[in-house]
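Researcher: Let's try something more involved. This one mixes different molecule types, so please make sure each is placed in the same coordinate frame as the others.
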Amino acid sequence: MTQSDVPRYALTLFVNGASELSSRAITNARLLCERHLGGRYQLSVMDLRDEPGAAADSRVLAAPTLVRNRPLPVRRHVGDMAHTARVLKALGLPDAAAG
Amino acid sequence: MPRLRSPSPADRESVPREISARDAMAQLAEAKDMLRAIGAGEVDAFVISGGDTGRHVFTLSTADRPYRMFVENMRDGAATLSDKGLILYANSGLAELLGYARETIVGSPLSRFLTAGEAIQLSEIKGADGLGATLELDLLTDTGDVVPVQVGSSPLVVDDEPLICLTFTDLSAHRAQNREIARLGQAQTERMAELQDAQAALTKQATHDALTGLPNRALLVDRISQALHQSQRSGRRNAVLFVDLDRFKQVNDTQGHAAGDSLLREVAERLTAALRPMDTVARIGGDEFVILAPDIDSDVHVVDLSARLITELGRRPEPGNHATRVAASIGISVSVGGRGTAESLLNEADTAMYQAKSLGGGRATVFDEALGHQIRQRSIAQQRLQSALDERRIVAHYQPIVDLDTARITGFEALARVSENDGSLTLPGAFIPVAEDSGLVVPLGAQMLDVACDAARGWRTATTPESPERRLTVAVNLSTRQFDAGNLTTIVREALQRTGLDPTCLHLELTETTIIDLDPDFLAQLGQLGDLGVQIGLDDFGTGYASLTHLRRLPLTFVKIDQTFVQGLGSGEDERIVAAVVDLVANLGLRSIAEGVETADQLGRLRELGCNQAQGYLFARPFVPGDIPAAVERRLVGDDAGIEASCTTAPTSR
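Model: All components are placed in one shared frame. Result:
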């Protein structure tokens, strides 16, 4: 496995079941990743109720929370992930539009 | 070095951390971020660490929960697509439709679950105008089954991100239902057709005559009304022809009803064939047909038409056809510019038809104003007679009947009068024809029976000394319509019972001209009357058929010789007729009574010829009831001189 094969960004989205807010967050997170991290990311979606331990491990206190596991340091952003610029800034992700 | 520390959760949990300024800044930023999210309503759950008992998730109730639950729990599938066609959200309904776990569905392209695959363009799903669409697609389930669905799409933009919301409605049940509906629809269509046929048949039944298939009276009236209405503006002429078959009843009676029906059908065909397409021919009663000829050019056309109809009906039947030649009487009424009503035109045509019939039949008569006047007079006379009957203003005057051997009065003929409110009397000639035509002769006859029986019962008690052979008789005229009414025997019996009159004193007179045929019912009623003990005689003999059959088959006890023959006494022919009738009657064991005796010569000849009894102005004008006892007393000692003493010079007897 070469370096380029390993996704540079590993993200986990913790959501609360199939709530409308969850759906929105999932949608927005996927769109955001696709647009700004195109091909260089791995996004997992986890349900708080299924994986409460994992949530705690990632110090997730609320849902929806998008966690940047990699690259370190771990960073979190809470909300519906609708405001792309805010999400990118909070998670320290590159803005594709900005180059 | 904090910067090199592993971020492993275990570390965080177990090792007291030295928090760098940078970490602190990051934590502060996260805390602020979370507060912002909570404030903006972008958080719907919190994870609370509960020590040994593990962790709990608390879900927030939010205002949009009903909506979420609705989408989540609805039976239809629901999904959100990215503008690249990825499924971002799927509800349990869609998961159930597809048979895949929701995790598998979310994040996958929609095309993966369509039989059409990528052949279906996203733009097609969004709708040509990008405003949404409804289309039918086939879903591919995890078991490889195909599920037809109706897909509804509605594009929307959330925070600048274009999305497509989709609903999936399973059509398999619907399709099966459609097939069932189509099957039922077919059956329904067939049933509807049957119902329509039945409806049409019913309508035809309500508006058509069953025997001939011609329109009936209701439809005819409707068509006449329409024609009149249309002519109000156009000023055109419409003719109504009332066609009545002459002597149809005889066909029915002598050849049977089947022959009668067949004749009516034949007539219907011949009439129809002779008319224009726009003409209507209807059957409105037994042998009564009516033709509506709308929009005729002139009255000449109608006269031609009726002549053609009479010829056509009188045509010899085709060989092999048993139908007889038919004579018909036609009455014509013409309306110009929509004048009159359907009923008035029918009445006029009917009147004209009767006129044609009274002129001998086999001809047409056009209704004119003179006839109209006649109708109005009839109508007034009918109303007056009706009120006279209602108010029991029918009175009788009594013409004595004298025995020619003894010169004594043996009885009286009751002659009807209407006592008018002004004190005057109306004579029979003014109301009998109306009574006969209208059927009022039935109640009139009943009242006359009552009045006459009542009076005759009084004569008996007033006559002294009373002896059976001196009981005075009373003769009352009957109309054949009283026999048609069916309750004549009852009426006679009740009149006798009520008054206590000896039945043998009641003489009932039948006018020969009104006896058309000797049907069993008529003969049975006569038999019943005879059984009551009343005597039955034939009036006006010689003016009708002078039928020997009548003399032989009717249960008669007397025959009245018509006054026309009596007044001809002295001339050879009439005298021979009177002589023959007197002989014939005597030989049959019946009594002969001469009517209208006016002169002593006539009386003398009648005595010589052997006539039994006589009545007429020679003896007396009809008496008012109060004068009868005195008259009877006088006649008790009467003789030829007495008869001559009462002779009057009145010209007629009735």
